[in-house]
Write a structure and sequence with these properties.
The complex is a heterodimer. Chain A has 20 helices and 30 strands. By secondary structure, chain A is of the alpha+beta class. In chain A, strands 3-5-1-13-10-11-12 form a seven-stranded mixed β-sheet, with helices on both faces. A five-stranded mixed β-sheet of chain A has the order 7-17-16-15-8. In chain A, strands 20-28-29-30 form a four-stranded mixed β-sheet, with helices on both faces. In chain A, a hairpin with a 5-residue loop joins β18 and β19. Chain A is globular, with a radius of gyration of 28 Å. The relative contact order of chain A is 0.13. Chain B is globular and about 50 Å long. Chain B starts with a strand and ends with a helix. Chain B has a five-stranded mixed β-sheet with strand order 2-1-5-3-4, sandwiched between helices. In chain B, β3 and β4 form a beta hairpin. In chain B, α3 packs across α6. By secondary structure, chain B is of the alpha+beta class. Classes of the chains: A alpha+beta, B alpha+beta. Chains A and B meet through α2 and α18 of A and α2, α3, α4, α5 and α6 of B. Chain A: This is Xanthine dehydrogenase family protein. Chain A: One of its GO terms (molecular function) is iron ion binding. Chain A: InterPro entries: Ald_Oxase/Xan_DH_a/b, Ald_Oxase/Xan_DH_a/b_sf, Ald_Oxase/xanthine_DH-like, AldOxase/xan_DH_MoCoBD1, AldOxase/xan_DH_MoCoBD2, AldOxase/xan_DH_Mopterin-bd_sf.
Chain lengths: ~800, ~160
């Protein structure tokens, strides 16, 4: 089962099909409800007997919970109940977020609400349930919780020192995970190098800022023992499993529904203790409980990401060829590894991805993952990619400078050749087919290099400092069980699609992958319309309901098109074959002599219409008596797909950023940005372009603005959108997107992911552009975000 | 803290009378009391613009206006603007350009964009970027939104000139 069907084996050519929707910029079918304000986000759902939860959150980075007095809170009008950690622990097992294949990884058990200690400022400690959110907050204000503040381990650099505060004494130390990947003779390569360049990079801790905050309604029905959860999540089946497992319920008794999701970017693919607390409270109370994080809560309790310090060295020979990378990464992840994906994966990805686009002989990279008393970090869009790309591309530009080479020339010399595939990188990543040189060619077609360099020289004469920066990158997509499954995490790497023809010839597709605005439902409709042979408007796509959709992984690591799309294509092709079997019986024709085009059964040879699908549907469903008795007539097919040959489908691309640095103020003004990316088969170019642009802007955010800033006591200082800057329209440049298509041969569809590309490369391109601009002033920046303060410090303007 | 005030106002052309808690913001009143869930809550500080609606013809932040202050006011939300057809071309342009990804910022963004159509028909792309800088979008990178608004401004100018 699940054999990979090739175009040849089917006698099909995708592009030649008259009703081909692959590669067309079809508008999203679900966009109209979004623009009319008629979408259904979790907070838009209201249920009978609904109560609202609010949490008292720890004001300390680390504190013992001495006592909790709930009496005044219970007297507040509207307050129904107050829950502590001990009460919730009676119905919910704790979880430990480790993966078996990340050797030696450790973390502590985590409960919905902590039992004895709060370990970061913002951790939910006590829950109040009331008939309105306002009343629940009144209840929280009336709680009397006595904390005994403990010393906090805030700085990741000191977390492994002998005098560090051990956050979980039973673990012995604050080391969560460390891994070194080493290939070739690194020491010899550095010893023989013509030049060695070195720098220390920092990537700023930032977070996703989904405009729709984390949202959940849990509804336990005592009559039938079912738990229905309306949830703003990317992975409904994963959450179904988590709720069932932790609450000790059969998985079939848990249903997770996510209709419209207002942004996710990885933020909503994790298990949050406050959300588990909501499920526990509903389980105990037997009534629906809603929790919508407010923005203050979001900043302190959504996962953060990218809190890394990385030192890197690159050895090059006299011709500018790369010999070896030697990299040391340190990251602080907060007090717990986040369930079930774990917070070690980001550092692990840095190890996997550094040096990724280049051919070189020796590689050493170590990641060290430590605990600290700050908000937990975990997977956010392009996990580890922007970190690895910034380090790699920063070192590449330093090498170019050391050798007097042009940034384009040094990349051209070292990028893995387009005819070198398949191959395995020094970090151990298997590449099926990448297109670094074709992508660079395409980028150079788009970037007016001569005009830019001439303008740059002219502006410098006027005292205006402009810079152009490049960043090649690789992107990990279409993850197999090698990402999480082999480590013991119950996260599905396969996905399924059920496709059904209804009596009027319309088609319903139910998919396990989910829609968060990236256009999943649009591309699935295109793929199914293409595969069955019907107009795209005749396809209705259903996602985001674990009770009705095939079991799958949802949305993470760019798997919607590549995994979910292939399952949709295979099920659509199977449905088409089934329809043609029935049509053959009706029309006294060989099924192989028939085809379906734009909703009509046609003669394959002549294209002549034989019967509309609506007529076929009418007869199958209402006049089955007129069909042969033994004719199989299931106009519904399900296929599941999983990649088999490669653990991941790597994609690649290159970005360029053109900007101006005001050396008086340190402010960076973005002028123009380019990205060429290769996501394999492009299903909907408009949607891919917008994914890339949106990704670039999130990368720009990390590079220039976004920063979760803590004081030395572990107090988060950026807790509103007035303190935490995100990119706005006025500062964003025009972004030009180009494509190279190298379809994966693993699937008929050939699609890889596109969602991480923009975020992966933008910070490195911006860093290199800033350093290019500041070149004449001998100033360089390597610590993100590149704030005016940091740029002025690099310039020596301020101390 | 639970003082209530009676207000009567017009919301999307319909008369509404309620007794509201004095601390209730307009956005919560619209969403919780009236079930008008089109406008969204996101930052609660008047920064991000997701809750933008119209009060007496002006685009305002629903998270900064108190419902109790709106006796006699005329409020329009994205649902009302959709029903009247005032911004049908703008909505169509947003769909055509994929200027809405997750859609959470979109209703507020459209109300702000409608303000440009009304008050700055000759707005340049830079003007558009400036005007919508109070409306955060985390998905699109803004470019498609600027394109969509620009398309509609041009089309309206052309149809007026014709």
């Amino acid at each position: 089962m699940n054999e990979i069907v090739t175009p040849r084996s089917l006698g099909l050519s995708r592009e030649d099909l008259p009703n081909s929707y692959i590669g067309r910029a079809v508008p999203r079918p679900n966009a109209r409800k979004l623009v009319e304000g008629r979408a259904t986000y979790t907070d838009d759902v209201s249920l009978p007997r609904l109560v609202h939860a609010a949490f008292l959150r720890s004001p300390h980075a680390h504190a013992r919970i001495v006592s909790i007095d709930t009496s005044a809170a219970l007297d507040v009008p509207g307050v129904v109940r107050v829950f502590t950690g001990a009460e919730l622990a009676k119905v919910c097992d704790p979880w430990v977020a480790v993966l078996a294949h990340l050797k030696g990884m450790k973390s502590a058990p985590q409960y919905p609400l902590p039992l004895e200690r709060a370990t970061w400022q913002g951790e939910a400690v006590v829950a109040v349930v009331a008939d309105t959110r306002a009343a629940a907050e009144d209840g929280v204000a009336a709680l009397a919780v006595l904390f005994d503040p403990l010393p906090a381990q805030v700085d990741m650099e000191t977390a492994l020192r002998p005098d560090a505060v051990i956050i979980h004494p039973e673990l012995g130390d604050n080391l969560v995970f460390t891994r070194t990947a080493e290939t070739g003779d690194v020491a010899a390569a550095f010893a023989s190098a013509h030049k060695i360049v070195e720098a220390t990079f920092h990537t700023g801790r930032h977070t996703g800022v989904t405009l729709e905050p984390r949202s959940i309604i849990a509804d336990y029905n005592r009559a039938d023992g079912t738990l229905t959860v309306h949830h703003s999540t990317q992975a409904p089946h994963m959450m179904q499993n988590v709720f069932a497992t932790q609450l000790r319920m059969p998985e079939g008794d848990v249903r997770v529904i996510c209709k419209d999701v207002g942004g996710s970017y990885g933020i909503k693919v994790h298990v949050y203790p406050d959300e588990m607390a909501v499920a526990c409270m509903s389980r105990i109370m037997g009534r629906p409980v809603k929790f919508i994080a407010d923005r203050f809560e979001a900043f302190g309790s959504d996962i953060h990401a990218r809190d890394h310090r990385i030192t890197g060295r690159l050895a090059v020979d006299a011709e500018g060829r790369f010999l070896a990378f030697d990299i040391d990464d340190l990251t602080g992840i907060g007090p717990y590894s986040v369930y079930p994906r774990t917070s070690a994966v980001e550092g692990n990805q840095v190890v996997n991805l550094c040096g990724g686009p280049y051919a070189f002989g020796a590689y050493r990279c170590t990641t060290t993952v430590v605990l600290q008393n700050k908000s937990p970090t975990c997977q956010y869009r392009a996990v580890g990619h922007p970190i690895a790309t910034a380090v790699t591309e920063g070192l590449v530009d330093l090498a170019a400078e050391a050798l007097g080479l042009d940034p384009v020339a040094i990349r051209r010399k070292n990028l893995i050749r387009d005819d070198a595939y398949p191959c395995t990188s020094p970090a151990g990543m298997r590449f099926e087919g990448l297109s670094h040189h074709a992508s660079l060619d395409k980028l150079l077609d788009m970037v007016p290099l001569e005009r830019i360099r001439a303008d740059q020289a002219e502006q410098r004469r006027k005292g205006v400092y402009r810079g152009l920066g490049f960043a090649s990158f690789i992107e990990l997509t279409n993850p197999s069980p090698f990402m999480y499954g082999i480590g013991g995490a119950k996260i599905s790497a396969q996905d399924g699609c059920t496709v059904r023809m209804d009596p009027d010839g319309s088609v319903v597709a139910l998919s396990g992958v989910t829609e968060q605005g990236q256009g999943t439902e649009a591309i699935l409709a295109q793929i199914v319309a293409h595969g069955v042979g019907v107009p795209v408007a005749k396809v209705k796509v259903v996602t985001g309901d674990t009770q009705t959709t095939p079991y799958g992984g949802g949305t993470w690591a760019c798997r919607g098109a590549g995994i979910g799309g292939e399952a949709a294509l295979q099920s659509a092709i199977a449905l088409k074959e089934q329809i043609l079997q029935v049509a053959g019986a009706m029309l006294q024709a060989q099924p192989s002599s028939l085809d379906i085009i734009m909703g009509e059964v046609v003669d394959r040879a002549t294209g002549q219409s034989r019967m509309p699908l609506s007529e076929l549907g009418r007869i199958v469903y209402y006049r089955g008596d007129t069909l042969p008795k033994d004719l199989a007539r299931e106009l519904v097919q399900t296929r599941h797909y999983i990649t088999k040959e490669y653990p991941f489908a790597f994609t690649n691309g290159i970005q360029a950023s053109w900007l101006e640095v005001d050396i008086e103020t340190g402010i960076v003004k973005l002028l123009e940005h380019w990205c060429v990316e290769d996501c394999g088969r492009v299903i909907n170019p408009m949607l891919v372009d917008e994914q890339v642009r949106g990704g670039i802007v999130q990368g720009i955010g990390g590079a220039l603005y976004e920063h979760c800033i803590y004081n030395k006591d572990g107090q988060l200082l950026t807790t509103t959108l007035a303190d935490y800057l995100v990119p706005m329209a006025a500062e964003m440049p025009d972004m030009h997107v180009g494509h190279v298509e190298t379809p994966t041969q693993e699937s008929l569809l050939g699609a890889k992911g596109a969602g991480e590309a923009g975020t992966a490369g933008a910070p490195a391109a911006i860093m290199n552009a800033i350093n290019d601009a500041l070149g004449p002033l001998s100033a360089k920046v390597f610590a993100q975000p590149f704030t005016p303060e940091r740029i002025l410090k690099a310039l020596g303007t301020i101390a | 803290m639970n003082r209530r005030i009676d207000v009567s106002l017009t919301v999307n052309g319909e008369k509404v009378s309620r007794s509201v808690d004095t601390r209730t913001h307009l956005i919560d009143f619209l969403r919780s009391e009236l079930g008008l869930t089109g406008a969204h809550t996101a930052c609660e500080h008047g920064v991000c613009g997701a809750c933008t609606v119209r009060v007496d013809g002006d685009a305002v932040r629903g998270c900064l206006v108190m419902a109790a202050s709106l006796d006699g006011a005329v409020v329009e939300t994205i649902e009302g603007l959709s029903d009247t057809g005032e911004i049908r071309d703008l909505q169509a342009a947003f769909v055509a350009r994929n200027a809405s990804q997750c859609g959470y910022c979109t209703p507020g963004m459209l109300v702000s964009a409608a303000d440009i159509l009304k008050h700055a028909p000759n707005a340049s792309r830079d003007d558009i970027r400036e005007h919508i800088s109070g409306n955060y979008c985390r998905c699109t990178g803004y470019q498609a939104i600027v394109d969509a608004i620009d398309d509609v401004l041009k089309a309206r100018r052309e149809s007026e000139a014709a």
